[in-house]
Write a structure and sequence with these properties.
Domain Aminoglycoside phosphotransferase: 100-160
Order of helices and strands: EEEHEEEHEEEEHHHH
Radius of gyration: 18 Å
Shape: globular
Protein name: Aminoglycoside phosphotransferase domain-containing protein
Largest sheet: 5 strands, antiparallel
Strand content: 5-15%
Number of strands: 10
Number of helices: 6
Length: 248
């Protein structure tokens, strides 16, 4: 069957073949496939089903139909419905992944302490599939690794509240964002306070900046340096938000 290159990701090597997606594999692929199978067995069918490897050594996954939230984001991404569904779905993923968190496995990214669940590490609109204004899928989970629940929730908040430096004219006003953060935490269903999530998000930004600096050094691409600088500005913004919460 013909291969259709799927746009929107960081790689032009992801293709659709009929109702399947074929992607480059790595040493972490068996752990990711076990994670996907475990999630689906627990009733979390919003993730792809793994079908092993093809004759070219690529992983094969089921294709999830719908619209991926690529940038620039459509205005409906910011609906309260999607915010609620995202938090609720992430909680279900985490709960179902917990039995694998301490299992011996090779992951692409290092674990983060304290280990509680398997984090997807990149839960954001660009890795979500939507149909009719609802989240119907999570894709590109090959960055998963064990870590604390708040590590994933903080990055989801960064992208979907949002908490960063956005030029999107349709994004919620800054005055609304702490309320949206509260709504996301409630949807996840765990008693995290705002400062704890913001602090974890700031940690994520520094972690991303260091990772992106290394990508710039490895590739010679100056745009990665610009992204790293953005992450550090967002880190500082998040720290300012924490300070304002503590102010009398």
């Amino acid at each position: 069957m013909d291969e259709e290159v799927l746009a929107g990701g960081n790689s032009s090597m992801v293709v659709r073949v009929g109702d399947t997606v074929h992607r480059p594999a790595g040493p972490w692929t068996p752990a990711v496939h076990q994670l996907l199978s475990t999630l689906r067995a627990a009733g979390v069918t919003a993730v792809p089903e793994p079908f092993g490897m093809d004759e070219q050594g690529r992983e094969v996954l089921s294709y999830l139909p719908g619209i991926v939230g690529n940038y620039p984001l459509p205005s409906w991404i910011w609906s309260s419905t999607i915010l609620h569904e995202a938090g609720s779905l992430l909680r279900r993923v985490h709960d179902a992944s917990a039995p694998l968190a301490h299992a011996a496995a090779e992951w692409q990214l290092p674990a983060h302490e304290p280990i509680e669940v398997v984090c997807l590490n990149d839960v954001a609109p660009y890795n979500m599939v939507f149909q009719d204004g609802h989240i119907t899928g999570l894709i590109d989970v090959d960055m998963a690794s064990p870590g604390p629940r708040i590590w994933d929730l903080a990055y989801l908040a960064y992208r979907l509240v949002p908490l960063g430096e956005y030029a999107d004219p349709d994004a919620p006003d800054w005055d609304a964002r702490l309320g949206r953060l509260d709504a996301l935490i409630r949807s996840y269903g765990h008693e995290f306070d705002q400062a704890a999530v913001l602090r974890a998000a700031a940690h994520r930004m520094e972690d991303l900046a260091v990772f992106t600096d290394q990508r710039a050094a490895d590739t010679g691409r100056n745009d990665f340096l610009e992204h790293a600088a953005l992450y550090r500005r967002d880190r500082d913004r998040l720290l300012d938000m924490i300070a304002s919460l503590k102010a009398p």
